[in-house]
Design a protein that fits this description.
With 264 residues, the protein is an all-alpha fold. Helices cover 75% and strands 0% of the residues. It has twelve helices and no strands.
Length: 264
């Protein structure tokens, strides 16, 4: 929801906010997030990356709580909702958005699915930055205001960095199990110390991008520093806590960004 909120704030600032396209963008964003998570759950189980010994939160397929075929179906349904709503939105606003939609669905499935999943090659952060940052934020601003301003790009960079930070924390926690399963995430390739450096860089860049609009997001810098401190732990519960705090950080950042932009 955060990139859609940030993009909507930009659209209001640029004088072009429209309710229905904004709501459609929100549905697409949530459906895509659900689809990616379910697809990841299913594909990681099939490839052996997720087992009952996983250190993170319970996964549906690996835990046996839900049959894998049902997890796969949930992913298909979520992507289907995103595709249908996205198609309607594209036809109503700009047919070129269809290209972005197709790329987004393909990227969502191929993250851990397909013959050569890019999430296993250390490219997950790149695609998260592009699709859950730049595309989600700038796309929302475009469907509502029919333009993408510099402010929208700054918001996309900020939300993209924070989304990447969440993924980095997730992969930092799973370094050992991912390495054992042959899942060469960026965290596995960099190792714990350099992964924490990457995390710090993403958090700093997010706040620098936020300053392109105003200074309100700086109010949550203590939470960002707290997240980074938690990332030094190798205890799974602590890293799960850091993951949750980082998600809260993105939401609070988006809310403060929105308040600042609307008051600008």
């Amino acid at each position: 929801m955060s990139p859609v909120l940030v993009g909507t704030a930009v659209a209001v600032h640029d004088g072009g906010a429209r309710l229905l396209p904004g709501l459609a963008a929100l549905v697409v964003a949530i459906a895509m997030q659900l689809g990616v998570n379910y697809a990841n759950d299913y594909s990681d189980f099939v490839r052996g990356a997720d087992t009952p010994r996983r250190r993170g939160p319970v996964r549906a397929a690996a835990s046996g709580v839900i049959p894998p075929r049902q997890v796969r179906m949930a992913a298909v349904v979520a992507f289907g909702v995103a595709a249908v709503v996205g198609l309607a939105l594209s036809l109503a606003v700009d047919w070129r958005l269809l290209i972005v939609g197709v790329l987004a669905v393909a990227a969502g499935w191929l993250y851990t699915g397909g013959p050569r999943p890019y999430g296993y090659l250390g490219l997950g952060e790149v695609f998260v930055f592009v699709f859950f940052g730049l595309f989600a934020t700038c796309g929302t601003a475009y469907v509502e205001a029919l333009r993408v301003s510099g402010l929208a790009w700054a918001g996309g960079v900020a939300t993209g960095c924070l989304a990447c930070a969440i993924l980095v924390l997730n992969n930092l926690r799973d370094i050992e199990s991912d390495a054992a399963a042959g899942k060469r995430t960026l965290a596995v390739r960099l190792g714990p110390r350099r992964t924490r450096v990457l995390l710090a860089g993403l958090l700093v860049l997010a706040f620098l991008a936020g300053l392109a609009a105003h200074a309100l997001p700086l109010l949550v810098t203590p939470l960002a520093f707290y997240v980074w401190r938690l990332s030094a732990s190798r205890e799974a519960p602590v890293l799960v806590g850091a993951l949750k705090r980082c998600a809260e950080l993105e939401v609070l950042f988006a809310l403060l960004w929105t308040l600042g932009v609307l008051a600008w």
